[in-house]
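Subgroup meeting minutes
Present: P.N., E.W., G.H.
Scribe: E.W.

1. P.N. recapped why we're keeping a running log of single-chain structure predictions: easier to compare across weeks, and new members can see raw inputs and outputs side by side.
2. G.H. added today's entry (157 aa).
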Amino acid sequence: MNVRSGIVCRSALLCLLFAGSAAQAQTQTAAQAKVVRTPLYDTSKETTIEGTVASVVTTSTKGMVPGAHLMVATPTGTIDAPLGRYVMNGPRAAVFTPGERVTIVGVPAVFANQHLFLARTVQGAGKTYQIRNQHGFLIQTAMPVSARVNTLQGGAR
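Output recorded in log:
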């Protein structure tokens, strides 16, 4: 009987340990489930702004979001639209000049205490540049939308 009671005690102890760890895992999972992260780019908040290019910043300075920035003068003030690292580089780089009228579709956001306008598309000088996809991720080439369609069609042959 002594051996049998030892096995029963060990089995009971193992069951308690497993039950305790399972309860702890459920508590951690419930706590983690309460953390809700909202996306920075929310298409339901997408708006269109029109304005004049005040300046084009091709090299970001300390404290700025990395990449090129389009500073656009609107009736309500100057908007900082970060365009990322790719839009102003390469053979099909976007070209914006101060004084040019632009239309930008995007989402206003606050990032690192900076008020920004996350541009999805920028239209100016008869061309529309796609900067971000519908989820807000930067696109690595900034060729005009019409050139992108022609390239895709040509590649599908």
